[in-house]
């Protein structure tokens, strides 16, 4: 039920989001020195008291927190029947994420990631590939078909990494069958094969970062400018699916969106960076919230930009303090003017 001052759910473009992807936790390690870690190198650092989450959890968390309670956010995945898995399910359910399609696997451990950060805020992560998430099957995804049928023509189908590609393909096929808006992201190792296999033809929106864009551009030259990498990657993707919309994030260098005809750049909001981990997923979540509020991709990108910026002020990959009120305050304090439709979403007048 909507409350006074917020955009009624019946005005939303979508009424539900059904997503498949990894669900897990991890730890952060802060490396000494900004030089890229070498294959044979040993280097010191320290473990950080930061909470790490996987992509499906991050995106679903913000979507559920920022939209009305009667918007349906459904997660599909697997966790281990262990303390970590139980805790993650409890956290997801407490913010309104429906976890009835998240199975507990007694034979497997919950997905775990080891994230490493350099002093300049950049970094990467290593993720287990033999966890419960690795066992997410097409048949498990197929069990969610009644949810797709229930929200036919008014939902988002979200396919994210850390589960097998076949499971993601099944979700996108259900999205196609039931008229959902189909969204995905892929790792740098997956993106080229996803393009070559034709999987991108099953998408309406693709979210990529700079590293994934470089894999698509295949330029192999450090002297090539970021703008050239963006243009080349967009061209490669549009050649496969001319109707594909694209959002591309590059940290402090801002973000781009391609709506099928025009490429637009949005500068990053200047902040005091705490951690960029999870910011790209926060950006995608904010963009999906904006699209749900029936604004254009470039306008939705504005909201994605704000969510990502505020996310990066937290050491955790899910900023625990982000909700509609705090996000509106953050935007105002950083001089970001929201368009009227987003003001309505946040109840700002």
Give the overall shape, derived from the CA principal axes: globular
Order of helices and strands: EEEHEHEEEHHEHEHEHHEEEHHHH
The whole-angstrom Rg is 19 Å
Structural class given helices, strands, pairing? alpha/beta
- Uncertain stretches: none
Kindly state the percentage of residues in helix: 25-40%
Largest sheet: 9 strands, mixed
Arrangement of strands in the largest sheet? 5-4-1-8-9-10-11-12-13
> What distance separates the N and C termini?
20 Å
Q: Compute the average pLDDT.
A: 91
Strand content: 15-25%
Number of helices: 12
Count of beta strands: 13
Protein model, in words:
With about 350 residues, the chain is an alpha/beta fold. Helix content is about 35%, strand content about 25%. It has 12 helices and 13 strands. It has helices spanning about 55-65, 85-95, 140, 145-150, 165-175, 190-195, 210-215, 225-240, 280-290, 295-310, 325-335, 340-345, and strands at about 15-20, 25-30, 45-55, 70-80, 95-105, 110-115, 125, 155-160, 180-185, 205-210, 245-250, 255-260, 265. The strands form 2 sheets. Strands 5-4-1-8-9-10-11-12-13 form a 9-stranded mixed β-sheet, with helices on both faces. Strands 3-2-6-7 form a 4-stranded mixed β-sheet. β11 (about 245-250) and β12 form a beta hairpin. α6 (about 190-195) packs across α7, α7 packs across α8 (about 225-240) and α9 (about 280-290) packs antiparallel against α10. The chain is globular and about 55 Å long. The chain starts with 15 loop residues before the first strand and ends with a helix.
